[in-house]
Design goal:
Length: 171
Amino acid sequence: MVAWFVVIGIAGLVNIAAAPVILIALNPLQGLGFCLHHRWLAFVALGAVVLSLTGAEALYADMGHFGKRPIRVTWFGIVFPSLVLNYFGQGALLLANPGALSNPFYRLFPQWAIFPMIVLATISTVIASQAVISGTYSMTKQAMQLSFLPRMSVVHTSEQEIGQIYVPGVN
């Protein structure tokens, strides 16, 4: 996952360097102007922003396994900066080349890097999906302990790690 975030952050940074005009987007008045002039489109764009944050539930579920400090260090040190650089890099790419609209993420990379990026994306997706599944089991167990859900069978899959569980009823 660290490799994924570092690579996408670097790809974004390269494209920001090629079209630094994207940094104007950091001015809040630009966002306000967009909202005032493109009301419906601004509403849809804000909805997309909300959807881009839906991974946060897995982050909070993982806090039960790792604690607040490691999650905060990872989020603010790697994940957030990489995502910001990548999103700004996509914006810079689109400003420089509007024809990249069909797939701005993969167009950030040179042609030779497309297949390695697909492999890295696939590996990262598998890891992230496992984190969501583990988080779902963890949150279910916590909900049962708080009497928000009826009791279900919880199978401990590791003798060393108490948080490694499987809940067949959720599966």
